[in-house]
Amino acid sequence: MSQPKPKLMVIDDLDSARAMMRRTLARGYEVFDFSSVAEALPAVERADFDALITDLRMPGIDGLAGLKRFKAKVPDLPVILVTAFATVETAIEAMKAGAFDYLTKPFEPEQLELVVARAVEHGRLRRDNSRLREQLSGAGNATGMVGSSPAMREVTSILQRIATANVPILIEGESGTGKDLLARAAHAMSARAGKPYLALNMSAIPENLAEAELFGHEKGAFTGAEQAREGYFAEAEGGTLFLDEIGLLPLALQPKLLRVLQDGEFTPVGSRKPRKADVRIIAATNEDLAAQVKAGKFREDLWFRLRVVPVRLPPLRERREDIPLLIEHLIRKQAVRLDRPPRRPDAAALRALLDHAWPGNVRELEHALERGLLLAQGEAITLADLPPELTPAPASADGGDASGRYRKARDAWERRWLEELLREAGGSVGKAAELAGLHRSTLYEKLTRLGLADRESKG
Prior knowledge:
Blueprint: E1 7-11, H1 15-25, E2 30-34, H2 37-46, E3 51-55, H3 63-73, E4 79-83, H4 88-96, E5 101-104, H5 109-137, H6 150-162, E6 169-172, H7 179-188, E7 197-201, H8 210-215, H9 232-235, E8 240-244, H10 254-263, E9 265-266, E10 275-276, E11 280-285, H11 289-294, H12 300-306, E12 310-312, H13 323-338, E13 344-345, H14 347-355, H15 361-375, E14 380-381, H16 401-424, H17 429-436, H18 440-449
Parallel strand pairs: 1-2, 1-3, 3-4, 4-5, 6-11, 6-12, 7-8, 8-11, 13-14
Antiparallel strand pairs: 9-10
Helix pairs in contact: 2-3, 10-12, 13-15, 17-18
């Protein structure tokens, strides 16, 4: 399915000027034009525009006054001012009022297209960061990650203290624990939030191309380099570069990354002229870098420089109390993406999800629920809809002693989860059921079985 075109608002009192801009931009955008600020003001709140272009001098409310009103209504909307009467003072005033850019008539169509493309991209980044910040401030979790277990609260606490500091971060954790999400959260919480965030997985790059990918290259630097090209460091200027699986960075390149971290400089392949780099490095690994240092596969000085503040993301088996919240969150997310009803797991499916070891962590859980939503035919996700490896094993041949011990351990964990859930819901079974994504009667049966039914608030 093709993506909808970005929406543009064009305001000019001259019919010819509006027609020209509409023709120029119609190929890539959905253009709505208005003859005055007063006419456009109600529309800017009704529709989700990606950028706005307004003439400066118009009868009634002029473009500068309109700019201030538009920014008051939609702060993240990029506004481009257009005028035939440009002065330095007007340009300064426009920028102070929040204009994204300033075009002087007459201008070439290519100029307009370039400025609009930059404005739309800038607006998209601002909205993405705003949405992420909303997630960061929700549920007491500043990382945007789902979970209230002690292990995740520790991650949140560390990230809140270091996100705004301009230092490298090393995220350690198994595959599927959410290292990229944590890196994005650190970027969104930092002063670099409005600048680029780029991610590069070192396992996806052939060793002979890694240097050119990171630092760029000059024309003719190697066979096939028919033109100069910027690397990830140049493209991430002012922002954040996330280097996943940093343990796979070729040993020969490690001193060059260390130079960037220490001196803020790099040299493109084929060049002798160093370039400055204002980029924050966030690295991640699912390997034991200390062991790699001992084995001579990773430089000790680079390891020390990266792990100024290491953050360890716990595997899902170490924060099992977060699984019910993750199930609810991931079902809502995948239901929207797959255009499916947000079906919840039935009792047997939920028990299997709670009992599974999850060696693939949150990513494996997400894929299991994705499969469940795709295959479910009734009102709930059943055990048959989940991956086969989640089906409980048959009882053991030793008379049931092993399975009995397992059930006791599982019930003890479930009891702790229900007690925490009731505390969070203030003793209300109805609210607790809503938080857990369970039917009230199902939750009440669990409480009764575990002797917790009397914990319900009588208020």
